[in-house]
């Protein structure tokens, strides 16, 4: 594809690429390249998302851009917050509150986060300070890359033989993202060569591997190594971490701080079904799929119909002799534009070559996939319709019902089995992976009768019906509330996290710090999963910046250690629980993996992303207790 400045012979090819681009994003490019805000007034209606396209106006927009692209690149005009806010509003076709301006300017690279602005000399101010990162999925990579840029010494241990975490382990057929990958990626390491708008697992894993190589992380990671325990010694303000390598040998490590990047979704949950140990065929959880699993020509029973089931079942259905799907409760199934679409060469060109296009396209994705729906997940006081929780939620239900009714066609029995009786977002909604087309295949059956037991060659339901099976696939999710299991993390008072949390009731201030556990930081910790939309990687970047801010506080205060105050921790978690009580996830009769066995939501954040960004933008010194003993006063 052509490079810039644009040559006359390349103009037809560039114009073809512009026709494949999103017009609102092209308008943002024109404004930034020219510094002329008058274009916003001229083209706002012509490019408004959802409106009928104005072909003549868009052709003029293309002409203006081509003229600009012929010229040598000029220094773009600096954006004021007011100008930026106006551009955001025109880009998405609806009013964007000014409170989003600082967050989006940082994410898109127009401003530098305070915690990142101070890292240049942070390493030398910290002195002899070493960090251990546990896990190198998206969270661990994010932390390692930012620490590497800051020059802060760190080591990484990873239980798997490669980077990627969830995206290394989950390699079942059809595995892929359900958030647009131009958003589900690091803001500071954008990839403009994605082949799809929603990529499959191998391509996303390749991206993470490329990030690790670019930052020289492979040389700093000890693979096939699992953390057994970590304990904090107040006497010298150090953590002792015991790890077990591939050879089974234990190794002791001494570090100043620990960053747990193991997240929430790393230990598969397999239901305790009587007779499972008697099954004579292959039984596999989607998260432990391996090359030895053969389904072609087999009778396959899939237990569970969540996110992994939505991906694996339609992928294997054409290959198997029989696919029997056991559904405990139905899911909301949404249509998502571009879910199955390839990224064209023209679109890749505008993303990689056209200045600011990828930047504004990322914002467009953020707005469409994040906080815009948060209000529809909040309960309306006095609302009586048990199938919804508010007028906004009722509108969502109506829209989603239309898609599911159209997808089920005239099959009333199928619709009755698949239509949820709970409000939208009560459970994680799924993106339609041709689910209904698959269910209508002659070799596929959807069973809503509960599973009673498993026999040597069959799954038996409560009605006594036997469903012969050669392979059982568990699409049953993870032990999300048992965070950091099975590691033993022992804090300053000799108590473990399990003592504090119990088996499945994790809590943390902002999901990151816990009182009594100095210099111990959690990424993708309690109440940081995004249940209303957005990108968990975006959320991780917020958390990593907060950790860097904590390291800055340590350096500026001359302290060896810091820990969250207990009253701050308690007050924050009280606010979290109160906010969840007003959210759809705690609606009566709704069961989901967000809650523990006593009904407390432990995984999800109740906040809008902008709320969490504001709370976690920089750590407040008054929220912490500091160990300010000089280094010389500490024992060797």
Q: Keyphrases for this structure?
A:
FAD/NAD(P)-binding domain, 5-stranded parallel β-sheet, 34% helix
Q: What can you see in these coordinates?
A:
The protein has 3 domains: 8-96 and 347-369, no CATH class; 114-265 and 480-633, 3-Layer(bba) Sandwich (FAD/NAD(P)-binding domain), CATH 3.50.50; 276-332 and 388-421 and 424-474, FAD/NAD(P)-binding domain (3-Layer(bba) Sandwich), CATH 3.50.50. α2 packs parallel to α4 (55-69) and α2 (23-34) runs antiparallel to α5. Helix content is 34%, strand content 14%. The chain has 636 residues and is an alpha/beta fold. The chain is globular, with a radius of gyration of 26 Å.
Q: How confident is the prediction overall: mean pLDDT? A: 95
Counted up, domains total 3
The CATH class of the largest domain is Alpha Beta
The third-level CATH topology of the largest domain is: FAD/NAD(P)-binding domain
Helix content percent band: 25-40%
Q: Can you name the CATH architecture of the largest domain?
A: 3-Layer(bba) Sandwich
Distance, first to last CA: 61 Å
Unreliable stretches, pLDDT < 50, 5 or more residues?
none
Strand content: 5-15%
- The coarse silhouette is globular
Q: How many beta-strand runs?
A: 21
């Amino acid at each position: 594809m052509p490079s810039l400045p644009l040559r006359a012979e390349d103009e037809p090819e560039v114009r073809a690429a512009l026709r494949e681009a999103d017009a609102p994003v092209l308008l943002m490019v024109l404004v930034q390249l020219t510094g002329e805000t008058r274009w916003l007034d001229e083209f706002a209606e012509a490019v408004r998302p959802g409106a009928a396209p104005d072909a003549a106006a868009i052709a003029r927009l293309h002409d203006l851009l081509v003229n600009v692209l012929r010229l040598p690149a000029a220094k773009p005009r600096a954006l004021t917050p007011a100008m930026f806010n106006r551009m955001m509003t025109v880009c998405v076709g609806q009013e964007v509150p000014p409170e989003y301006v600082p967050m989006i300017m940082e994410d898109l690279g127009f401003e530098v986060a305070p915690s990142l602005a101070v890292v240049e000399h942070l390493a030398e101010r910290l002195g002899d300070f070493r960090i251990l990162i546990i896990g190198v999925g998206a969270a661990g990579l994010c932390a390692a890359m930012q620490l590497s840029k800051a020059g802060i010494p760190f080591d990484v241990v990873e239980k798997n033989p490669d980077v990627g975490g969830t995206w290394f382990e989950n390699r079942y057929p059809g595995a892929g993202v359900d958030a647009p990958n131009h958003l589900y990626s690091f803001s500071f390491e954008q990839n403009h060569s994605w082949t799809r708008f929603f990529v499959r697992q191998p391509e996303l894993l390749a991206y993470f591997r490329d990030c690790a190589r670019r930052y020289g992380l492979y040389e700093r990671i000890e693979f096939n190594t699992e953390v057994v325990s970590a304990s904090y010694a107040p006497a010298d303000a150090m953590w002792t971490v015991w790890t077990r390598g591939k050879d089974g040998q234990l190794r002791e490590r001494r570090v100043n701080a620990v960053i747990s990047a193991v997240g929430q979704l790393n230990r598969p949950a397999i239901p305790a079904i009587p007779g499972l140990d008697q099954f004579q065929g292959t039984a596999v959880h989607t998260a432990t799929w391996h090359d030895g699993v053969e389904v072609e020509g087999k009778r396959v029973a899939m237990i569970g119909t969540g996110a992994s089931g939505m991906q694996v079942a339609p992928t294997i259905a054409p290959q198997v002799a029989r696919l029997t799907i056991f559904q405990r409760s139905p899911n909301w199934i949404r249509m998502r534009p571009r879910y199955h679409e390839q990224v064209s060469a023209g679109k890749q060109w505008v993303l990689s070559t056209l200045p600011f296009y990828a930047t504004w396209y990322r914002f467009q994705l953020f707005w469409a996939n994040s906080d815009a729906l948060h209000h529809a997940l909040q309960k309306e006081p006095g609302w009586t319709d048990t199938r919804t929780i508010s007028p906004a939620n009722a509108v969502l239900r109506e829209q989603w019902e239309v898609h599911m009714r159209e997808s089920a066609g005239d099959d009333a029995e199928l619709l009755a089995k698949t239509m949820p009786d709970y409000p939208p977002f009560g459970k994680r909604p799924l993106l339609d992976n041709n689910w209904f087309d698959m269910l209508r295949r002659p070799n596929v059956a959807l069973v809503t009768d509960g599973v009673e037991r498993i026999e040597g060659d069959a799954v038996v339901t409560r009605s006594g019906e036997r469903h012969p099976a050669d392979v059982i696939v568990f699409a049953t999710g993870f032990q999300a509330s048992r965070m950091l299991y099975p590691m033993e993390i022992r804090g300053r008072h000799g108590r473990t996290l399990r003592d504090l949390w119990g088996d499945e009731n994790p809590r943390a201030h902002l999901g990151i710090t816990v009182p009594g556990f100095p210099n111990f930081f959690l990424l993708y910790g309690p109440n940081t999963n995004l249940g209303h939309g957005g990108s968990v990687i975006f959320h991780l970047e917020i958390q990593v910046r907060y950790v860097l801010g904590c390291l800055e506080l340590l350096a500026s205060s001359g302290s060896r250690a810091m820990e969250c105050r207990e009253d701050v921790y308690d007050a924050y978690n009280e606010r979290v629980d109160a906010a969840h009580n007003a959210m759809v996830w705690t609606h009566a009769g709704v069961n989901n993996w967000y809650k523990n066995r006593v009904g407390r939501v432990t995984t999800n954040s109740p906040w809008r992303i902008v709320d969490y960004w504001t709370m976690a933008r920089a750590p407040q010194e008054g929220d912490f207790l500091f160990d300010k003993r000089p280094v010389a006063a500490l024992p060797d």
